[in-house]
Amino acid sequence: MNIMLFHSTHGLRPAVREAADRLRAAGHEVWTPDLFEGRTFDSVEEGMAFEDGVGKDELLKRAVLAAAPYSERGLVYAGFSLGASIAQTLALGDDKARGLLLLHGTSDIAPGVHVDDLPVQLHVAEPDPFETDDWLSAWYLQMGRIGADVEVYRYAGAGHLYTDPGLPDYDAEAAEATWRVALGFLENL
Q1: Of 118, 123, 132, 154, whose CB has the highest number of CB atoms within 10 Å?
Q2: How far is residue 109 from each of residues 16, 118, 139, 162, measured CA to CA in Å?
Q3: Which SUPFAM superfamilies would you find in this protein's record (predicted)?
């Protein structure tokens, strides 16, 4: 698979590069665009302040420009938290998208979007302050209505960005379970 992997609001941290290496070791081609142009942040608050300064539209523009040279190949869009939100937006707008792998995040769904059985897998903490139960229920139903084939995996007690070993949210057991399931998902696309 050709995978476009987007980073979280912490920026293109070592954990994102390690995730890309893990995916490459499983036989996938992976790109990790740096939407923050080299900036990384230790706290969510710092990252969100930077994100707000750049603006959502500019970040989406950067993501589209990063994906455009490869989209004809049929990309799997993937991302961590903010990156998952961006990946979802791009995948739902790309009729050649092969799949969508969401780690720690989702996004609003634009009106009028429809996909034909797009495989989607979401991995998220339970509870997650950024992905509440009510939000996830509504998101899941809406994704189904637009034609996505969605699987949701919840990890009780894990922190929001539990796959990043460099952050306090890290949960080794939940991270390994996530990667085991995600790699199976990608293998079957």
Answers
A1: 123
A2: 25, 14, 8, 25
A3: alpha/beta-Hydrolases
